[in-house]
Each structure stands twice: as structure tokens, then as C-alpha cells.
Amino acid sequence: MFFVVFADCKKSKEEAPVQNSNPISIILAKLQFKWDLVYFTTMDSTLSSISKDTILADNGDYFDFKTDMKCHINLSSILDINSYVVVNDSLLKLNGDSLFIISLNQSSLVFKQRAFLDTLYMQNVFYLSK
After folding, report:
1. Is the domain defined by 23-129 classed in CATH 1.10.443.10?
2. What residue spans define the domains of the chain?
3. Among 1, 26, 37, 77, which has the minimal tally of Cβ within 10 Å of its Cβ?
């Protein structure tokens, strides 16, 4: 349960500027949590066909972005630990792979991963929630 307490106060003219206004710091503050994987979509396309699928996550699947810049990923009860870095407000690198942030707020994270292999294009979109 979350409680918010409001107090009546006046703003001081000598108030210090807000810290962590760096866009990467803001992204990290939103990102560094344990996110439950809800589902993901896959799309594979070749010159002659396109295949799309939506896959519901297993109970207990998650991405946990730690403050030590490691991401613990649990998929189908297999734990994998990867390094990550936030490049900018729409891109993070997970073990060197690019993940494009589609949406990130207090309760949900959506990102996509793309790969090109010869004539094959693959895209996965991950939908996570707190």
C-alpha cells in the first residue's frame, strides 16, 4: 500500500535546483526495479513471408534492473544475468544488444529488440509491469 502525505509549505526563493535532472539519471530512476514480464510479441519476416505471435509469460518471468548495472532475467525458470547501460532516453544496451524503449513510466515498461540476419528481420516487443 502506498500513502502520500501533503503538507502546506511555501516555496523558498533560495531553493536548490532539482538534482538528477540528467535524462539518463531519470531513466535509471524509473528503470531500476523488478519488472514482471506480462507477455511479448514476436515478428519474423523474410522476403516471402511474415510470421507474428503473442506469447504470454510464465508465472515468475521477470527482468530485474539492479543498481549495479546488472539485469537479472528469469524466463521459464532460467536465470540469466547481463550487464546493461542506458545510452539515452530511448535506448539501452543489454549485453551489447540494443533494446529500444517504447514506453517507460511508474507502472509499465515496453521495449523492443530487433535483429537483421541476411534476408531475415526479427523483432520482439516485451511488455512488463511492476
Report:
1. no
2. 23-129
3. 1
pTM over cut 0.90: no
**CA-based end-to-end distance of the chain:** 13
Burial of 98 per CB tally in 10 Å (0-12, 13-18, 19+): middle
Q: Hey, what's the cell of 27?
A: 531513466
What is the amino acid identity at position 108?
A: S
Pairing type for strands 97-104 and 91-94 reads: antiparallel
Residue 56: how many other CB atoms lie within 10 Å = 10
Cα–Cα distances in angstroms (integers) from residue 123 to residues 8, 98, 99, 113, 127, in the given order: 50, 11, 10, 6, 13
Per-residue pLDDT 10s for the chain (130 aa) are: 333 333 334 444 444 444 557 889 999 999 999 999 999 999 999 888 999 999 999 999 999 999 999 999 999 999 999 999 999 999 999 999 999 999 999 999 999 999 888 888 999 999 999 9
